[in-house]
Amino acid sequence: MSEAAPNALRWSVPARWYCDPDIYRLEQDRIFVREWTLIGFSPQMPNPGDTLARDVAGRPVFAIRGRDGGLRAFLNICRHRAARLVPEGAGHCDVLRCPYHGWLYDAEGRLRATPEFGDDSGLDRDRLGLVPVKVAEWRGLVFVALNDDAPAIEEGLGDLVRVAERFPLERFRWEDRTVYRLDFNWKNYVDNYMEGYHIPYLHPGLNRETDAKAYTVTPQDRICVHRAPTRSGATYDGLWLWRWPDITIGIYGDGLNITRIVPLSPAEMALEIDFFFLPDPGADERDRRRKMQWTREVVEEDFAICRDVQRNLASGCYESGPLSPRHENGVAYFHDLVRRALAPEVGGSALTAEEFDTIGDPIRRRRARRSMRARAGEPAASLLRRLQREQLQLAVLRTRSGAGTSPADPAPVAAQRAVCGMLRDALDAVPGAAPASGSLRPRGGERG
């Protein structure tokens, strides 16, 4: 995918990306499955047998503290009949026993017992252990990665490791939590967080404490650091950053906020804010409650506009908008990361951002086909070879996924079908070329 020139005007991702179920599924698979995801905090599980469980990209996972003090993580799915082994949240279990039929596992995930199963001579217990998941602790935070190829945690966190180095993250103690369930897309919220452009219009209290015109967002490796001049002693004097794709960290004086942005559906998300403070026997508890309430109020001031934006994005009346080079460079960086993650790479052929936008949209599909026809005279023989390669790849994908030709095909299959459809139409448009029906056209006249 080509990158925009440094001084080119940047545009937001298409409105449909905030509403489309296919895009949402792609995000789960290509973003949240592939990144290190925060599931909790080390002080929640200090002892052997302590557990943390939650869903990550729709996959249930849990981590457990072993007798050796280390952490291990697994899919939270019994290998017998798919029951969840560990309740969501923080907990403790001396024995990993399935609540459904009593199958028993040890802390290393090995299957140890199958009570009352009957003749188990054909049961290979070595192959029926819990499915492992990568897990790591970093400075008191617990992360999991569903992707076996995920890099080491320090590499996966990007510049967060360097930027947070001077702050005593491990010393902070958990104080409180606030959870919101919200009716807009997760990217809608991140867009809002990634700029201070809106502060004078939506945040009167914050605007009194900060110089919004001097507010800066500095993109670095998988993070964006927020800075703004503040009056002496203002609440927001400290370090504020976002880490790709789904957490924000705020450090101010003796306080620390860690927020998780959790996609729930194309138009729903949860916002989980955990509040921490440095241990201080003489701390003013009323002041700490005031700081937490101040944060909640500032966060809540964004909800109404995000809801309005979500409705308009879903209306079909808006496509994309220009991003301010002065104030919205953080939004542009976030959108670049999303585009890069979603760009399908199948069979050695990549869709451009414009072609990818057309999946599931007949009008834009037709425009993209016309664009492909206009590409500088690719010979028919070359187009046919490309089409045959892509159709073979489609057949492989459909076989692996068990997909048919319905609109509910998995997103990678839908993306590959789109590639084949556009190549067929481009080939049909070449004067004197044999019809694309001579290629490996899918059964049933499938057009992609």
TL;DR of this structure?
With 448 residues, the chain is an alpha+beta fold. It has helices at 21-32, 153-156, 160-163, 186-193, 199-202, 204-209, 285-300, 303-313, 329-342, 353-357, 362-373, 380-401, 411-428; strands at 10-11, 37-41, 50-56, 59-65, 71-75, 89-92, 96-97, 104-105, 111-113, 132-138, 141-145, 173-182, 216-219, 223-227, 239-243, 247-252, 255-265, 268-277, 322-323, 345-346, 349-350. The chain is 30% helix and 24% strand.
Folded structure, characterized:
The chain folds into three domains: 17-31 and 168-336, Naphthalene 1,2-dioxygenase Alpha Subunit, Chain A, domain 1; 37-156, Rieske [2Fe-2S] iron-sulphur domain (Rieske Iron-sulfur Protein); 345-445, no CATH class. The protein is of the alpha+beta class. It has helices spanning 21-32, 153-156, 160-163, 186-193, 199-202, 204-209, 285-300, 303-313, 329-342, 353-357, 362-373, 380-401, 411-428, and strands at 10-11, 37-41, 50-56, 59-65, 71-75, 89-92, 96-97, 104-105, 111-113, 132-138, 141-145, 173-182, 216-219, 223-227, 239-243, 247-252, 255-265, 268-277, 322-323, 345-346, 349-350. Helices cover 30% and strands 24% of the residues. It starts with 9 loop residues before the first strand and ends in a 20-residue tail after the last helix. The strands form five sheets. The chain has a seven-stranded antiparallel beta sheet, with no helix packed on it. Strands 12-18-17-16-15-14-13 form a seven-stranded antiparallel beta sheet, covered by helices on one side. It has a three-stranded antiparallel beta sheet with strand order 7-8-9, with no helix packed on it.
